[in-house]
Amino acid sequence: MPFSRLSFYLLDTPAIRERETALARLSGELLGRLPQPTCAALAETLEGINSYYSNLIEGQGTRPIEAERALQRNLAQAPGAEPADLALLAVAHIQTERWLRLKLRQEPALNVAGADFICALHRHFVEQLPPSMRVVIGTDGETAINEPGALRLRDVVVGNHLAPDAAEVPALLAAFTETWARLPKTPAHILLAHHRFAWVHPFLDGNGRIARLLTTAMLAQQGLDASGLWSLSRGLAKRKSDYYRHLANADAARRGDLDGRGTLSQKAAYELANFMLDVCEDQIRFMSTRLQIEHLKDRMARFCAERQLVMGRDARAAPLLLEALLMGKLERGAAPRLLGLGERAARKVVAECVDDGLLVADSHRADLTPRFPVYAAAYLFPHLFEIDDPQAAMRETLQR
Question: Which of 116, 146, 180, 311 has its CA 20 to 30 A from that of 29?
């Protein structure tokens, strides 16, 4: 019965396969546009984008630059003003995404659809929330605590969706795991799994965010997310009403004998998959246009001119930063040649870039690799971040 209720249809039409092939190709092309260290650095910055838009879908948005500052305070455990609750929510999302990607690097064959991983994902996220954000008020007005990693013990209603009885959740989650093991790990099935997990609604709260993080894990495990260079959450937030409509439609019972053999509608499952494939493709293309390598030289020059204007930094850093971005590293000995300066003057320019978080190294002798703080990415990759005043963002970030 649980297998039938999950209705994990085999989505394998020629049109779906063609779309999946295109998605894999576009993702690979995006990843191949920049060297691996640069991609990894940019993907780390984009974790803030994922967090921002995933929370925005739930009606709780914290701008990426605010999340970045909260994350820095969180990691440093520095004294002073504590981040606001919404900033902590963003930090929890970023840290959980980092955790899941680390798990996948350590265990490439990890069973991401298993209850152990799913509950660990929820536990890692909720444990980082303040107590006030773990309180859930039910439709009956009663309160309960969203326990980290714990399956729900009470029935819930989400919009018009009456989630399965709490007593059924363990069996449905086990069926989710078993069915996923049988299916081809294709994009359409990953995107259908996104809905089926949300339909089960295994936790008291946080299911939407966990569903999106779980989908991130599934896409990453199959090498379909360009190592984090594009964001499904961004696309879903931009089409929030369509997203919710397709999720609600996919909750519907099958529409007669010709609409699949499960409990839920097969036609709605295909509609959901096609909508989600649209979103994925749109976001990969969006990121490809943001990179625009042919314009990076001009953008870098403008960014360094702004650094000089706002913070008094040496504008001659542009060739250094461009070299690091395009090559994935900067050899320290190359700085005088690239800048046309003596060794001492070149070291000063490099030091400014390190101090501003634009270059990092494992040691004082190691090669430098690029980093993209939000204030810098706003200049280098326009319209990627929600920043009204990049100059103010730069000033606020670097004066802290």
Answer: 180
